[in-house]
Amino acid sequence: MSGGLFRPKFDIYGPVTLPKAMEYYGKSPESSSSGEKSIDLVNDALSLIVDSVADASVYDNDGDNLIDCVYIIYAGIGQNYRFLRLFDGDGRVGKVDEDGKDAW
Question: Is the pTM here over 0.70, yes or no?
Fold first, then answer.
């Protein structure tokens, strides 16, 4: 897609166990993200690995004294998960229609 121009370089830290229960960080109604505490999740995760990072400036490519990107891989099914059926019972390939529902 990028013709070889996008070549990410990253470091892996962890695993860590966050100090609060999973429900604290993400419990909210399906129709809303109002209860999500993603900033708390990132801050709590970073606080657990801060001593492992020798020089955080290597993660600041634009010189604004902020880490440019953090990606967190978490265990289990996330709140963003939606099971999509790829095949019906007869082996036909399914699709997802405009409203996000399975359609055959």
Answer: no
